[in-house]
Amino acid sequence: MWLSAALRRLRLTLDMIRFEHSVFALPFALTGALLAVRDARQSVARSLRELLWIVVAMVAARSAAMAFNRLVDASIDARNPRTAMRHLPSGQLSRRFAWLFTMASATLFLVAARALNPLCFALAPLALAVVFLYSFTKRFTSLSHIVLGFALGIAPAAAWIAVRGSLDARILWLTAAVTCWTAGFDVIYACQDYEFDGREGLFSLPQRLGLAGALLAARGLHVVMIACLIALAVALHLGLLSAAGIAAVAALLIYEHALVKADDFSRVNAAFFTMNGWVSLAFFAFWAADIFLHRASI
User: Fold this and answer.
1) What mean pLDDT, rounded, does the chain reach?
2) What kind and span of H or E run contains 218?
3) How far is CA 7 from CA 14, 97, 104, 275, in A?
4) What is the CA radius of gyration of the chain?
5) ∠87-88-93 over CA atoms, to 5°?
6) SS3 category, 149
7) Which helix (H) or strand (E) holds 11?
8) What are φ and ψ of residue 150, in 5° steps?
9) CA 289 distance to own-chain centroid
10) Lowest CB count within 10 Å: 49, 63, 136, 195, which one?
11) What is the number of alpha carbons within 13 Å of residue 80 lying toward its C-beta?
């Protein structure tokens, strides 16, 4: 009986944190790892081991961050009609279980970092601090979207460090790209809570710039993302497949922005969940193919 109840709570927790949406940032982290492996002379077995631990670390960190965010925002979510039926405000899950899940996920992240290399382990607490900090930022800054973006953006650089044991400044172009991509789509998503945030005194770019201004800012962030990807491709001397991947990402983002307007957010879920999943997967498919072709040629 207790096992059945625990498994049910775990299933509800995974639903609460939208576990399936780990796909958003994971492909960018894996791309960072593959770029690090690209010119490295190491065995396939070692590379596969590192990729496995990178996936574990990435999923664990995101799970800890999402569960922590739901805990910190539970009282706010309870007052927001859009989020009042989330698992903690509605009583489907207890705060105690959510805290246990958060601590377990954070511990698994530290274990994965330790398994990778000493620098990863040394930086792991800082990474957790960044992803946990985001949950408080909407209370004091309109740039909370940028903080969220950076929390995801450090993943490719962390993956590079996991493979190489040191940081190459060129991979920071991918950190910047993911930061801008995430911040851009988070601004779009935050437009749904424009009126609620105003009543609650919460900070966001939609509150600061208005809905039309926020959508314009989101477009600008995504333009910067594309520029950063081009800079990375040039810096690492990548091929035509990577260029095609950038073009595919740009096309998907253009369509994403076409789905939302300042007076119509009825398709915001398609823009936020569906299109961003395709953005990350398309990017990874093209860039991974480019990297594997490069490896095969040397």
Assistant:
1) 91
2) helix 205-235
3) 10, 12, 15, 31
4) 19
5) 75
6) helix
7) helix 2-16
8) -65, -35
9) 22
10) 195
11) 21
Sorted by where each begins, the domain ranges of the chain are: 10-292
Task: Return d(Cα 77, Cα 60) in angstroms, integer.
Answer: 23
Domain 10-292: assigned CATH number:
1.10.357.140
Nearest to 143 by CA among 209, 196, 80: 209
Residue 281 has pLDDT above 70, yes or no: yes
Residue 294's alpha-carbon distances to 163, 170, 224, in angstroms, are: 18, 18, 27
How far is residue 161's CA from residue 40's CA, in Å, rounded to a whole number? 13
- This prediction has a pTM of 0.94
Residues 97, 13 contacting (CB under 8 angstroms): yes
Q: What is the separation, in whole angstroms, between the first and last Cα of the chain?
A: 57
Confidence band, pLDDT 50/70/90 cuts, at residue 183: very high
Nearest-10 crossing angle of helices 172-190, 275-297: 170
Q: Look-up: residue for tokens 């209370």? A: 139
Taking only the tens place, the pLDDT of each residue in 112-146 is 999 999 999 999 999 999 999 999 999 999 999 99
Q: Is the pLDDT of residue 275 over 70?
A: yes
**pLDDT tens for each residue of 7-45:** 788 787 778 877 666 777 789 999 999 999 886 666 667
- CA–CA distance, 105 with 172 (Å, rounded to integer): 26
